[in-house]
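Hello,

I think I submitted the nickel (II) ion job twice by accident. Can you confirm which output corresponds to this input? Input:
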Amino acid sequence: MAVPDLKSVRRHLHEMPELSMLETATAATIDGWLKDLGLRTKHLAGTGVTAMVGRPTPGRTILARADIDGLPVTEATKLPFRSRNVGAMHACGHDCHVAGLIEAARNLVARPPERGAVKLFFQPGEEGANGMGKCIDDGLLGGPKVDAAVGVHVWQAEPVGRIGLVRGPCMAAVDQFEVRIEGFGGHAAYPHRSTDPIVVAAQVVTALQTIVSRRVSPFHQAVVTVASFQAGTAFNVIPPEAVLRGTVRTFDPTVRRHVAREFKRIVSNVAKALGAKAHVHYEFFLPATVNDLAMTDLAWSVAEDVVGKKNVVASEPSMGGEDMSLALEAVPGVFAFIGASDGTRRTSFPHHHPSFDVHEDCLPVGAAFMEGFVRRWLGEAA
Ligand code: NI
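Support: Only one job matched these inputs. Its output is below.
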């Protein structure tokens, strides 16, 4: 079976989104296409797929990565190729990443790099499941040893036809917390005989706002968001506890540790001052995604070849997270933003929105950038 063209690959995958780490049909489809290209595939962490192109030479293996998972979102577009899996959607554009890497693979197979090799990597579980970490634990960066890495994300913040790059940190570190405020429940009419965890938790939420405004230098970035506040069951009962959940985003590792310390200090002391007890679970989840400076320079020149000088721009970093960060922590590399919006309403919905869609002209741009970067890093002219 011949591997379909770029647009058909994207549309085919768009119809069959699967949730993180459950991408069985997606992985099987990708596996089939890679085999049709004459490649030998290997599976990692269940639904991850890799294949090598070229001849591994010490110091000359580059990882080219595309994430493959969809989101638990019910698609609201009217596209003829909209999701057939109710409750799942390619609402972040990972279908485009797979299509781009399959196209790059086809071209790399047709004219393999002369020295060195590309490890094609179709990564499961990017959406909060740490699929990259799982695949690294399963040997992704070895056999042969990976020396560099490249990945892309289709990007609504940039117009289609543009490639955006960030020198240094491009996406934030992602941490998460759960705070359980333990009070003392009772009758809502006799609050003085209780310790009301709702009032305490409300004060905690307010006090947490001072971390960014009063504890982090204005020259650094941080986000502290309480995204969930749960307490109580009835209008006349003071509950025994309240639970807060949320996320912290930072770029700088020192700021990251500082925010974590301030967070714990504020939560426990505000609770204590009001006679309650706080149980804090704070997890360092993913580091910031950091583009290597030399690799960004290389990416810049490759991008100029793909879309022309005036269409390569310095993008604003994102407070969103990416588990590509773990690969870029292990080896130098770059994560590029591929402009995907044509300015119309249809392609302007934010990532993860039920109406998310891209302008498909972003597909050849992503594919050409991946192929071009790999070739250039391996020392070939474009
Ligand atoms: Ni994404």
